From TrEMBL:
Protein name: OmpA family protein
Pfam families, A to Z: OmpA
Main location: membrane
Location of the protein in the cell: Cell outer membrane
Record lineage: Bacteria, Pseudomonadati, Pseudomonadota, Alphaproteobacteria, Rhodobacterales
Organism name: Pseudooceanicola spongiae
Amino acid sequence: MRRRARQARALTLTLLPALLGMTLLAPICGQAAPLSFEIPFAGRQTHSDTRIDSFALPTAPFAKGKVPSLALEGNVTRLSWQVSGQMTTLQLLAPLREQLEGMGFTPVLQCDTDACGGFDFRFGVDVIQAPDMNVDLFDFRALTAQRGTGEDADYVFLLVSRAGSVGYVQLVHITPGQVDLTVPEADDAPGSEAVPGVTMPRAEASDIAATLTASGRVVLGDLIFATGSSELAEAPYPSLSALADFLKVSAGRRVVLVGHTDTEGGLESNIALSKRRARAVMERLTRRYDVPASQMSAEGAGYLAPMASNETEAGRETNRRVEAVLLSLS
């Protein structure tokens, strides 16, 4: 009886993507074949874009201060899905890996969480912004695969994670080749100027809890640090008060505080500075707002996860920030 139930469930999961129309036919560059990819789970697509772009394809776990990668240029398709249910990250990844292998892809990199490099790997690779994609720093898996060789090759980077009862899947398909870098003529119509978007959730203090719960992360936008300093200025910070209230609801709630910088200076020094700033915020929450240190940790991403272009002062100011990333609500 149980065997029949499993077979019926397997048939349902096989037919469901076709019913939902979740097949991807990626445009191609050069001679790479189209990628027809299906998500064999009940879920919804949260992000889809294709553009001529560059992509740093991870080829090994984080080591010696960086994620080894292959620099590619060509047609880059980025997609993400959210999947309902209680599947583990392995249960999410295994059928997707099998599908890719059946399409002729050969794995180049396969790792999970600590074996990938944990926090350092997550912030060293290209991840679609929240809330479309969410990566739990303690529970994710990554797969890089290649199909073909030379000019006929194309590549896939697959990243899966989960938070609570939701699974997250990101697929990036890269078809390298000669690209047309001609800049289109500007549209002079009023209101057509391109404005760099900021996709990381920012929130008023009153919305910190709601944004953190819904998006999995939030920028603490009212913090004040002197230029080049990790000392948090003595001032009332409504964002910290709201975050403290959120954490003290339950001892099982945990966040990681992540510091970020602009691109001025070297990577190592910026990572160190960003981590010191995150640590300063953690200490303030512990000392001033009585949040148990066991509910928090502090990390630094340096300039590896910008929200805006570093070519303008406004963009650099946006990138200098500390954010809270939700690890657990239980």
